[in-house]
Specification:
This protein is of the alpha/beta class. Helix 2 crosses helix 3. Helix content is about 25%, strand content about 35%. InterPro entries: PRTase-like, PRTase_dom.
Length: about 210
């Protein structure tokens, strides 16, 4: 008996070379005819985190950042490892949960391809002095639609930060280019992944991309 499409999807993987570190990512359906390859950086181990932190830091160091900013949740380990590899100590995390100390936080509304509904990015006002007038690099795990990253950039700029660079592990498809606009020129990444469409017995196949 041939496996049905759902069984094929459950077993399909996409291999990506992340700056010399091969990773197999599961292909996960978002809609019946649309899927993504999902990277959960928190599940890929300490060595992978150290590797991507070191590789991103090498690309970002020439920008001479004063502080690294990452967004919860999956941007947190990226921010920590890049900060560590740069030989710095402090970093800033943009939260998504309205914790008790964030009642008067700076807020930015965002959406994400991997999360349902609108979300908020929250910047603790106590962290503003770490950003104001300083050279800031914003990091994340993956940029897909670009909405989350754009929101992070806007929030940092509202706090007075000078965004000199963006670092991500993966770029996904090309929608983020329109969302980020001129800020695309600031982006440094380690690898690229496509999005996927259903193709009968072949399962999921990459969607052809238009390069801007």
């Amino acid at each position: 008996m041939k496996p049905d499409k759902s069984e094929l999807a459950a077993h399909q993987l996409w291999t990506v070379d992340v700056a010399g570190y091969p990773v197999e990512l599961p292909i996960v359906p978002i809609k019946p005819d649309f899927a993504i390859s999902l990277m959960m950086v928190i599940d890929l181990g300490v060595r992978f985190g150290e590797h991507v932190g070191r590789e991103l830091a090498a690309r970002l160091a020439p920008l001479k950042p004063d502080i690294i900013v990452g967004a919860a949740t999956l941007g947190i380990p990226v921010a920590i490892e890049v900060t560590r590899a740069l030989g710095q100590d402090h970093y800033v995390i943009l939260q998504k949960s309205p914790k008790i100390h964030l009642t008067d936080a700076l807020e930015q509304r965002i959406s994400s391809i991997t999360s349902k509904g609108e979300q908020r990015l929250l910047l603790d006002r106590e962290a503003i002095p770490l950003l104001a007038g300083r050279r800031v690099v914003v990091v994340d795990d993956v940029v897909a639609s670009g909405s989350s990253l754009k929101g992070a950039l806007e929030l940092v700029r509202r706090a007075g930060g000078d965004v000199v660079g963006i670092g991500v592990i993966l770029t996904e498809a090309r929608d983020w280019q329109e969302a980020l606009g001129a800020d695309c020129a600031l982006l440094h990444s380690l690898a690229h992944i496509p999005q996927f469409t259903s193709h009968g017995a072949a399962g999921w196949v990459p969607i052809a991309e238009t390069f801007l």
